[in-house]
Design a protein that fits this description.
This protein has 132 residues and is an alpha+beta fold. The chain is 33% helix and 47% strand. The longest helix has 37 residues, at 10-46.
């Protein structure tokens, strides 16, 4: 009589294959991101530096992070880690819009409705000179 719950060597064959597939997917994702970043950097390097009249159309901030609770010597310790990425959308005289990632300092200095000269190279923000 055979045991209906006995799976034999099947699990020992499937689990290593499953782990290998997950490993390949993770490494593939990392390599894809790296090559995509290098490609964008090269494209930006080959693009001309442009100075264009533009209007600050909108601003947004993307906040991401994590929160952890630890028990250390009978005390609960709460820690959090956040990161904010800032973006500004500029509108050109033609009506076209482009969004650029900017530093926190630049984000704070720009206001919606500001008009000036936008300096950029491909997708790389280089600066904005507000008109007086």
């Amino acid at each position: 009589m055979s045991d209906p719950f006995y799976m034999g060597d099947t699990m020992f064959q499937i689990v290593p294959i499953f782990i290998a597939v997950i490993f390949v997917i993770v490494i593939g994702g990392i390599l894809f991101s790296v090559f995509k970043g290098i490609g964008q950097w090269q494209k930006n390097e080959q693009s001309p530096k442009l100075n264009v009249q533009a209007l600050v159309k909108s601003k947004r901030a993307d906040v991401s992070g994590s929160s952890n609770m630890h028990l250390h010597q009978d005390h609960h310790i709460h820690s959090s880690n956040t990161h904010t990425t800032y973006f500004v959308t500029f509108e050109f005289e033609s009506g076209d819009r482009s969004e650029f990632r900017v530093s926190g300092k630049e984000y704070g200095l720009l206001s919606e409705g500001d008009i000036g000269i936008l300096n950029f190279q491909g997708t790389r923000y280089l600066g904005f000179e507000r008109e007086k």
